[in-house]
Design brief:
Number of strands: 7
Structural class: alpha/beta
Radius of gyration: 17 Å
CATH class: Alpha Beta
Mean pLDDT: 92
Low-confidence stretches: 1-6
Strand order of the largest sheet: 3-2-1-4-5-7-6
CATH superfamily: Vaccinia Virus protein VP39
Shape: globular
Largest sheet: 7 strands, mixed
């Protein structure tokens, strides 16, 4: 029988993030050996090339990506949306002013509002990738861009060692930091199941995005996906 984590039952996932919110960023920095900051800087630099005015950072969490985008594009208007209020409380402390408690499957924004939508490490926690991407397409302006940053799996010969770390070591280390090892066992499962590379590009295409691209970072541990609304 599937657990509620496997089923991505929204209330359970919401409570999970609420429990780890206070140590989430510290855990990410320690467990990525600081690479998380480099990944966010890469995403913000990509967004900056499009000179957007209105940006939605979906699944913004504690606002770390929104903060980096604001640093690189100080003139942009950034809205952070997340379904976990304790995470948004941390984003407020980072100076992100426009924050909305929102379900990624039913965004409370009008059509064609944003020039860019970013999603960092959040899409794989949503119950339906297709519905979430459809909502992103709805709120993007024609010609607007989507950027997804998420974990993938490195190629051989690193892959088996990474999988051992992901499933055996990471939950223990993260458990010491956050007190919630089960949360990181769940994260490991979502990383395995999340569409990667060609599969993600095909998903973006089915959801109506064009000019889709995938760029692996840090030996393929994460991938930046981009797409454009027609």
């Amino acid at each position: 029988m599937e657990s509620v984590f496997t089923q991505k039952e929204p209330g359970t996932i919401q409570r999970l993030f609420a429990r780890i919110a206070h140590r989430y960023d510290l855990a990410n920095t320690l467990l990525s050996v600081g690479c998380d900051a480099l990944w966010r800087a890469n995403v913000a630099a990509r967004v900056r090339r499009w000179t957007p005015v209105d940006i939605l950072d979906l699944a913004t969490g504690s606002g770390v990506l929104a903060q980096e985008i604001k640093r690189q594009i100080p003139g942009a208007r950034i809205v952070g949306a997340d379904f976990c209020e304790p995470m948004l409380a941390l984003a407020r402390q980072r100076g992100i002013k426009e924050l909305v408690v929102a379900d990624g499957l039913a965004l409370p924004f009008q059509e064609s509002r944003f020039d860019v939508v970013t999603i960092a490490f959040g899409l794989r926690n949503m119950a339906s990738y297709e519905i979430a991407l459809s909502e992103v397409g709805r709120v993007l302006r024609p010609g607007g861009h989507l950027v997804i940053l998420d974990f993938s799996l490195p190629k051989q010969p690193l892959r088996p060692f990474y999988r051992f770390y992901l499933h055996q070591i990471l939950p223990v280390l993260a458990g010491w930091v956050t007190g919630e090892p089960e949360a990181y066992r769940y994260f490991g499962g979502t990383i395995e199941d999340f569409p990667k590379g060609k599969a993600m590009l095909e998903l973006l295409g089915r959801c109506g995005f064009v000019n889709c691209d995938a760029r692996a970072l840090t030996m393929g541990i994460v991938t930046v996906y981009t797409g454009q609304k027609v």
